[in-house]
Each structure stands twice: as C-alpha cells, then as structure tokens.
C-alpha cells in the first residue's frame, strides 16, 4: 500500500501512521496530541489517543484524511482542539479515582521521581487514565521529567467557598504529551527555580489541596510522588487517602537500604500494604559485551523485599539514555521494556492486595 493511501480510521495505530505519513504528526500536534512523538504512540490508536486527551475523534480523523490529500495541515476549529475537561460542579463536582499508589523512598537521591514517571508511562501504554500528584513540594522533579513549564491555571470554584466566604480555588492539572495529568508545586510559579520555603503543616495542606481542589479527570491510577523521609508529607498521604498500597524505591547501598527499611516500618505501622520494591541504579550493563557491573555494590533488593514482606517489582539498571531524556524533559520518548515490566507487576500486586470496592470522590 503506497504511503499516501494508508487507511486512516479511528483504529489506525499512531506510530505506524506517522511513519507512513509524516504530516500526520503536525496534524496531531495542532490538536494538542503530543503523543505522536512519544513511546505511548507505539501502543495507541488514534481513537485511544483522542480519548486519553479528552478530544472528539471525528474532527481528528477528518483532518488527517484532508492532510493526506493536500499534504499540509488543514484549518482546525478552536472547539475541536479543546479537551472536554470536567466542568466545575459536573457530576456533583467529583472525580472518581479507582486506584491511588504512593511512590516512597525514605531517602533522597534514589530516583523515586524517575520510577514514578516510568510506572506512569507503562500504565498509559496499557491505555489507563493516569495522573501524578507531585507531593515532593520543596524538591519537585516531575515537571522537569515531562518537560512541563507553563504555570497551572487556577480559577474560582463557582460552588465551594472557603471558611472566610471567598470562592475556593480550583486548579487545572497540566497534561503531558501522552495525556498524563500532573500537578506540582513547580507549576505554581513563573520560574522553576523559585524556592518553596514552607513549614511542614503548610506542605501537608498543599498536598491536600492538590488532591481535593484539582479538576482531575476520572482516573484509573493516581500516582503520588512522595518526598523522602517519614514526616508530614508522607504521613498526610498515607493517613488521609484511600491508597491501594505503597511502592518503595531503593538502591544498592547499605545506607539507602537502612533508610528504606525505616519507610517500610512506617507503612507497616500504619497498616498499609507494600506493593513492591524497586531497586534503581541496580547495575550497569556494558553495551558492547553485555557484562553487568554492580557499580554501587551488590544488590540489596531481595533483602529489602524480605524485610518489607513485598515482592521485587524490578531492578532498574543505570542507563545514560534515561538520564538524557529525563534531563531534556523527554522521558515519554523512552521506549524501554522496563516501563511495561513495572506496570505489569504493579497491576499484579494491586490485584493481590484488593481493597474494599469503592471510588475516591474528590473536589
């Protein structure tokens, strides 16, 4: 089939279409569908991509067909590029979130935010609706990983009011290229270098606002990127939200392992399940010989898993490609099987630890 005759239907795979018809990427970007250039597009059809971004499929297919005939991007109406976001007050003003999974480390610098991003990408590849609540208020990394810079839109809630009688603010989450909804303190200011000099109680209050006063879509999974330690922020999330369980991130270092054990003890004391252990920076595999080098020493993953009474979800190797994409804000371009491994094993762990059948109502 010649490239100009490729069939364009709602079931057409995005990556295959763009490979055969490059102008399709420009058309999809015009609709706000940045997923045409990310790894999720390998797994997603036009219909699935449109649904994930809250867009109607018919105008997108029509524009792609017209672009195939003309070779250029046609005019697109503003109303066709606007996502159908939840209006304040719709459905009693409540979003429904099926599963909430905090990602916790206990110690900083182990790559917790990267693991959160990889899990989110893996879940999106399975066509789940995913959000990330960046609860690391004073050291947020999530916006940088996803290349997000625009400040979040904040409007007045037409229904709810503060105790002082003022309209309660409503926050619209940022949306990544692959339709992952994200809220982070780094998107509350004009500059990503602005320091958030807030004490613990304020941090806990902001986390609650990120959960309760955000116009999240109906999500299958909300991942919560927790700050290191066992203080106010983790306690707020673990005690206030109906979570499915916690994913603990560690690295092959005795000090990191000791601190992660403290985090595991906190989770157990609060009678929450630990879904699994992820050991980041576990080893380096030489690309020319395939030889594995344990740069930070032998793995402690099995020992931590035994103490946490949880399985090892994955051992993630040191990979310069991941670091490069993360630094450039292009983590969604990573086409690595580790994303699928993390998502698959997390889903299995959640299935093995069912919580009472309920949806979490917010806003």
Tell me what you see in this structure.
By secondary structure, this protein is an alpha/beta fold. The protein has 2 domains: 3-81, SP0561-like, CATH 1.10.3910.10; 90-362, 3-Layer(aba) Sandwich (Rossmann fold), CATH 3.40.50. It is 36% helix and 18% strand. Strands 1, 2, 5, 6, 7, 8, 9, 12 and 13 form a 9-stranded mixed β-sheet that branches. Helix 2 runs antiparallel to helix 4. It is globular.
Estimated share of beta-strand residues = 15-25%
* Quaternary structure classification: single chain
The first-level CATH class name of the largest domain:
Alpha Beta
String of helices and strands? HHHHHEHEHEEEEHEHEHEEEHEHHE
- Percent of residues in helices comes to 25-40%
Task: Jot down its keywords.
Rossmann fold, two-stranded antiparallel sheet, alpha/beta, SP0561-like, nine-stranded mixed beta sheet, 363 residues, 13 strands
Question: Layout of helices and strands, plus pairs?
Answer:
Elements (H helix, E strand, L loop, with lengths): L13 H7 L2 H8 L15 H7 L4 H14 L7 H4 L13 E10 L7 H14 L4 E5 L7 H5 L6 E9 L5 E6 L1 E2 L5 E3 L16 H13 L6 E7 L6 H9 L5 E5 L3 H16 L4 E6 L4 E2 L6 E2 L7 H8 L3 E4 L4 H8 L9 H16 L7 E3 L1
Parallel strand pairs: 1-7, 1-8, 2-6, 2-7, 8-9, 9-12
Antiparallel strand pairs: 1-13, 3-4, 5-6, 10-11
Helix pairs in contact: 2-4, 6-13, 8-9, 10-11
């Amino acid at each position: 089939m010649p490239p100009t005759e490729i069939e364009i239907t709602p079931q057409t795979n995005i990556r295959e279409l763009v490979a055969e018809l490059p102008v399709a990427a420009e058309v999809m970007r015009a609709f706000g569908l940045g997923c045409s250039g990310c790894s999720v597009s390998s797994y997603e059809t036009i219909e699935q991509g449109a649904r994930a971004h809250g867009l109607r499929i018919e105008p997108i297919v029509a524009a792609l067909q017209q672009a195939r005939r003309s070779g250029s991007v046609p005019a697109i109406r503003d109303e066709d590029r606007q996502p159908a976001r939840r209006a304040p007050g719709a459905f009693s003003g409540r979003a429904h979130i099926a599963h909430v999974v905090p990602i916790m480390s206990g110690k900083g610098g182990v790559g917790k935010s990267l693991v959160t991003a990889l899990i989110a990408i893996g879940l999106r590849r399975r066509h789940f609706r995913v959000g990330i609540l960046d609860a690391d208020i004073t050291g947020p990394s999530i916006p940088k990983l996803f290349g997000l810079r625009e400040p979040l839109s904040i409007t007045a809630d037409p229904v709810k009011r503060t105790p002082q009688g003022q309209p309660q603010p409503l926050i619209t989450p940022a949306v990544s290229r692959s339709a992952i909804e994200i809220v982070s303190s780094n998107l509350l200011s004009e500059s990503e270098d602005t320091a958030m000099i807030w004490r613990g109680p304020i941090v806990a209050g902001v986390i609650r606002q990120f959960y309760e006063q955000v116009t999240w879509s109906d999500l299958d999974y909300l991942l919560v990127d927790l700050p290191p330690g066992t203080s106010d922020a983790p306690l707020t999330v673990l005690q206030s939200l109906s979570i499915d369980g916690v994913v603990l991130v560690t690295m092959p270092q005795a000090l990191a392992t000791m601190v992660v054990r403290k985090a595991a003890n906190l989770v157990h004391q609060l009678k929450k399940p630990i879904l699994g252990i992820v050991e980041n920076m576990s080893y380096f595999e030489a690309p020319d010989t395939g030889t594995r080098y344990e740069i930070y020493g032998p793995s402690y993953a099995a020992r931590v898993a035994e103490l946490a009474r949880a399985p090892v979800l994955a051992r993630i190797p040191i990979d310069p490609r991941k670091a490069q994409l993360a630094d450039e804000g292009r983590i969604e371009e990573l086409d690595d099987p580790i994303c699928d491994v993390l998502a698959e094993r997390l889903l299995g762990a959640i299935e093995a630890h069912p919580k009472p059948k309920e949806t979490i109502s917010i806003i």
